[in-house]
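@channel sequence for tomorrow's demo:
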Amino acid sequence: MMITILTGLSIALGGYIAIMNWYTIYASYTSEKNVSSVPFFGAFFLVLGLLGFPLTSRYAWAGILVDYGTLVLLLALPMLAWDSWTTSRFNLLYRFLADADGRRDDIRMFKRNKFTIKTDYDPPIPGDEHGALVLSQGRVGKWLTAGDSFCLEGYEEDRILRIRKNDGEFITEEENYPDNNEFQHDRMGGLILKQLK
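structure tokens (generated this afternoon):
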């Protein structure tokens, strides 16, 4: 009797979470903001509850398909794995580092022309008019070679970052940076880079 009550509660809780996960689609559409679903919990309770009844135990796997949060994550796993592989150290071609004035920029360029930039600030610096402090930020985009320099683009609107070799050191130049931006912590031009790879 107690097992029946627990499995029934498990199905009810899992069903409620699954319904709320499906509701996030509607909520995102009507509010025009991203409303995130919660993966695994709905599916876990549904599968657990369905396994508790002999009549439904053979269909317990359906709990995974009923929960939108889990289903979307499972469908996205191949893409997430691919993104992780393309930015792994096995695919790293070039790496540059700039470290000055409490700011550290780590630029990595990978095969298939993908790049990442991670910028850390120590101490954190103001990022907007509300007093929010920026501790770290990241960017991704595509890179290509242009003569004797690298051209990085696609990381923020129409901004382009060029890495040029000048008298034995690498220097960055940025095009299309909005000069009217009051908080210029994300400016990438004028960095002196050390090539690590």
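heads up for whoever presents: Residues 29 and 35 are 9 Å apart (CA to CA).
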